[in-house]
Amino acid sequence: xxxxxxxxxxxxxxxxxxxxxxxxAFDKIAETNDALQAWAWLDRDAALAHAAALDSLRQSGRTxxxxxxxxVGLKDIIDTAAMPTACGSQPLAGRQPDADAFLVSxxxxxxxxxxxxxxxxxxxxxxxxxxxxxxxxxYSPGGSSAGSAAAVAxxxxxxxxxxxxxxxxxxxxxxxxxxxxxxxxxxxxxxxxLRTSQTFxxxxxxxxxxxxxxxxxxxxxxxxxxxxxxxxxxxxxxxxGLASLRSQDPHFAWFDMPYFDRLAADAHAGLMDTVxxxxxxxxxxxxxxxxxxxxxxxxxxxxxEIPRNLDRIRQEFGDIFPPELGKLMAHGATISDKAYxxxxxxxxxxxxxFASCFDKFDAxxxxxxxxEAPLFSESITGNPICSTVWTLAGLPCVTLPLLRSAHEMxxxxxxxxxxxxxxxxxxxxNWLDGYLRQK
Length: 439
What we know:
Number of domains: 1
Largest sheet: 11 strands, mixed
Strand order of the largest sheet: 1-3-2-4-6-5-10-11-9-7-8
Radius of gyration: 20 Å
CATH superfamily: Amidase signature (AS) domain
CATH topology: Amidase signature (AS) enzymes
Structural class: alpha/beta
CATH architecture: Alpha-Beta Complex
Order of helices and strands: HHEHEHEHEHEEHHEHEHHHEHEEH
Helix content: 40-55%
CATH class: Alpha Beta
Strand content: 5-15%
């Protein structure tokens, strides 16, 4: 598959055009999307018109952006003024935002061509979408960023944007066999993105190449005063981190997590083989905090915040929420302010611990999912628990498509880095990806 970086280079060298790249994307979508169902909305005419305008810019010798002519997909909870944003909900099918989300403006200013909206589970929760897994249609792509992961894995687009509140970027990337990054909390603005949890909602990127994930994240990462979670400090540059030369091999931490007894046998075997191949570069760490308590704290915070954030939708449209989300919202309304405050204190303890943990280690090595994707017939999106602790602490995460299940389905390996050290994490990820693939 041609990467986004390669596409931009080809355009610069006159080997192709933005119109050619966008046309090829729509041709590829036409081949498989009837079965795959990765897209909630497509606008060929508007995308080709934008691509033609970008070609005119290049022909006139004007400045080209870092994503000039690259076709991208956006999860259907990200507002777009020129396309509906239905949040995976049929009752909102006609919802037309007044303005683009901040991140959409960033993509467009970099020269990207937004060709459509990718499918999502309803309101980015766990009730599954209609999307299938490109590796085998009998399997789910996971969720909630189902379409973004599937569209990249199927080669429809080189990159797509998703979101994660628990494991909704890292898990579907693992299931679909693509690279993905969930950056440090506050790196990318969430203005114009459906809010379910102000504490955990984060934007992430799917790609078929690590360099593409870095490039798009660098484009998206910028301060936005309209998002109170967006930090005002300079952002780490992931492309620079990816290209950095290491003077020594990285040192990985390995935590014995309370959910490891739920790992599928093939996932466990693959991870143990990875640890064995890394040898003394991996050190098992005994943490002074309870990971089980952190997982429970995440559940309390997310469950408390979701009904309070979605209440405005209920007021406008009524109880249009699917079964699993409806049950969670009802439970969330019963959680006390004290229980929420206690959980937030637990979160702060985790943030404090990990701030010191990475003084010694370059990254945490950990599973991206418990195993291969669930069967589509099971009507589930998979367990997000392999992401929960890291999302709680707001740490940057990358998943690498390195393992295969007994059924030849993808399984990812996850790396977790220090907060706001996303550039260093990408350097480590690049090293690990190369090291394990050359063996």
